[in-house]
């Protein structure tokens, strides 16, 4: 009898198979500019492959779209003075603690929305994501979101246009960056809004969302598996008295801007010299500290 031939199945847990796919994707991309070469690390290629179930053709298309977006939007060149107004109420910031695996934690408080600028909010989101990635420890690719819905009403809901672009950026240009997202104390009315947002999310992202309620012990245990209550702020049922301080956070971001510039400026100069590409070099962030200090005073 004839034997049916089966196509070999890819095993994502097999290191050799993963390496082969990563090399295949790298070869498929072809020559890259210095900035794109910097972005397309082995870990980056693996994330895009994971996002497309290790299909090289689909991963290549996704990554090339991201490279086009990054070339136009230049997320690594956004600096704190440009977006600091969006952060004045503490509606989104990088927490001063990490989860149990050392991952960056982003805290968001939708009820503290303080602007109506679509572009401003998107640029602030991108800046915060880039900063979160910058702060990840070596070998760690994902972050944790803690979204506090205390005081949130539909009046605080972002416009559908902003929600759509937010989810598009997160899914298409920051694939496999989210480990888990905790929705803390969401009100009943949020369920209707969540149904709309879910429409723009892929199944993998939806699975990472956990609803957590302060008065629900079982749901709190889920969060405590990821974050030690000792470092968790009191408002989230933890034991830490840490609160957001805009002036202190501005100082931290200014230092991080210097670090970000040091990473990307060399690549920008290299692209300009070697490829004739007009690059907007990272601004002199050391001189921007005075701008923040003046704003805070």
Give an overview of the whole structure:
Pfam families: CRAL_TRIO (PF00650), CRAL_TRIO_N (PF03765). InterPro entries: CRAL-TRIO_dom, CRAL-TRIO_dom_sf, CRAL/TRIO_N_dom, CRAL/TRIO_N_dom_sf, PI_Transfer_CRAL-TRIO. This is CRAL-TRIO domain-containing protein. Residues 82-244 form the CRAL-TRIO domain. With 297 residues, the chain is of the alpha/beta class. 49% of the residues lie in helices and 10% in strands. Strands 1-2-3-4-5 form a 5-stranded mixed beta sheet, sandwiched between helices. Strand 3 (143-148), helix 7 (160-173) and strand 4 form a beta-alpha-beta unit. Helix 1 crosses helix 4 (56-73). Mean pLDDT is 87; it is low at 1-7 and 268-297.
What is the topology?
Blueprint: H1 15-29, H2 34-39, H3 42-51, H4 56-73, H5 80-83, E1 92-98, E2 104-108, H6 118-134, E3 143-148, H7 160-173, E4 178-184, H8 190-198, H9 203-207, E5 209-212, H10 217-226, H11 246-275, H12 289-296
Parallel strand pairs: 2-3, 3-4, 4-5
Antiparallel strand pairs: 1-2
Helix pairs in contact: 1-3, 1-4, 3-4, 6-7, 11-12
Quick summary:
This protein is of the alpha/beta class. The chain has 12 helices and 5 strands.
């Amino acid at each position: 009898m004839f034997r049916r031939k089966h196509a070999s199945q890819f095993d994502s847990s097999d290191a050799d198979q993963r390496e082969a796919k990563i090399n295949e994707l790298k070869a498929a991309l072809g020559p890259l500019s210095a900035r794109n070469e910097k972005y397309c690390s082995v870990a980056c290629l693996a994330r895009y492959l994971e996002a497309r179930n290790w299909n090289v053709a689909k991963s290549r298309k996704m990554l090339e779209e991201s490279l086009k977006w990054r070339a136009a939007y230049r997320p690594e060149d956004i600096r704190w003075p440009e977006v600091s107004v969006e952060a004045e109420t503490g509606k989104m910031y990088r927490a001063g603690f990490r989860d149990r695996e050392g991952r960056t934690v982003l805290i968001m408080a939708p009820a503290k929305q303080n602007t109506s600028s679509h572009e401003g909010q998107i640029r602030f989101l991108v800046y915060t994501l880039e900063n979160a990635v910058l702060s990840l420890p070596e070998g760690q690719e994902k972050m944790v979101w803690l979204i506090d819905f205390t005081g949130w009403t539909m009046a605080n809901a972002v416009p559908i246009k902003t929600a759509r672009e937010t989810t598009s950026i997160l899914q298409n240009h920051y694939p496999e960056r989210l480990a888990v997202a905790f929705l803390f104390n969401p009100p009943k009315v949020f369920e209707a809004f969540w149904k709309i947002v879910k429409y723009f999310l892929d199944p993998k992202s939806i699975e990472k969302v956990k609803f957590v309620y302060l008065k629900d012990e079982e749901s709190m245990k889920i969060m405590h598996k990821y974050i030690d209550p000792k470092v968790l702020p009191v408002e989230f049922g933890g034991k830490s008295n840490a609160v957001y301080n805009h002036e202190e956070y501005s100082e931290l971001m200014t230092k991080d801007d210097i670090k970000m510039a040091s990473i990307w400026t060399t690549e920008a100069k290299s692209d300009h010299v070697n490829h004739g590409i007009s690059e907007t070099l990272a601004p002199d962030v050391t001189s921007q500290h005075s701008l923040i200090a003046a704003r805070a005073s």
